[in-house]
Amino acid sequence: MTIKIIKKENSNYDKKLLVIGVFHGDEPQGEYFINSYIKENPKNGKNSVYYIPCLNPSKCRKNSRGVDLNRNFPTKNWILSENNDYFGGKTPNSEVETQFLVNLINENKFDAIITIHSPYKVVNYDGPAENLAKKISEIIGYETSNDIGYPTPGSFGTYCGIERNIPTLTIEIDENEDIEKLNNKFKKIFDYLENEY
């Protein structure tokens, strides 16, 4: 499996950021937002931004091996769960996609990480990301929260934000909102990340 990563690197960058679309295969909007932005804005900003348009092309929540990637990270709270939609694998970090992200994060010192999900209409944050969450909230018009409202053992947010202290956002979009209106908001978000954050 090949995971496409688009690096918009600036040799004199202020910050290095990671943006991930399609963590869950049935939440495809992030790929559209990222590809649309890259196509219209090929030049680098002041920050280096790594974009992964699609982490999980399975077209369903879980990956091709039946694992919810957002429950497969090697966190202190990872558990062997029932084999349902939130199945985190037989062991943590068992999946190629998870291993790819763990290695990428180990090899780079990211100043912030953003993932795009649906459908909760919230800017959820983990770790020291409240200020960034508030700024993104202003752009997209969603509330911020550091609690998604249910347990998430083995989650990416816990792995990066809580345990590694990297500001980590999960932008949960309203899947019923017009895709082009959302796309325009994400262009502003990506512009902010590349040029102002």
Q: What would your notes on this structure say?
A:
This protein is α/β, with parallel strands linked by helices. It has one domain: 3-Layer(aba) Sandwich (Aminopeptidase). The protein is 30% helix and 16% strand. A seven-stranded mixed sheet has the order 1-3-2-4-7-5-6. Helix 1 packs across helix 5. The chain is globular. The N and C termini lie far apart (33 Å). The model has no long low-confidence stretch (mean pLDDT 96).
List the helices and strands and how they pair.
Elements: E1 6-8, E2 16-20, H1 29-40, E3 48-52, H2 96-107, E4 112-117, E5 122-126, H3 130-140, E6 143-145, H4 156-162, E7 168-172, H5 179-195
Parallel strand pairs: 2-3, 2-4, 4-7, 5-6
Antiparallel strand pairs: 1-3, 5-7
Helix pairs in contact: 1-5
Descriptive labels:
single chain; 197 residues; alpha/beta; Aminopeptidase; seven-stranded mixed sheet; 5 helices; 7 strands; 16% strand; globular
Number of helices, where a helix is a run of at least 4 consecutive DSSP H or I residues: 5
CATH topology, by name, is Aminopeptidase
In which order are the strands of the major sheet placed? 1-3-2-4-7-5-6
User: What is the total number of structural domains?
Assistant: 1
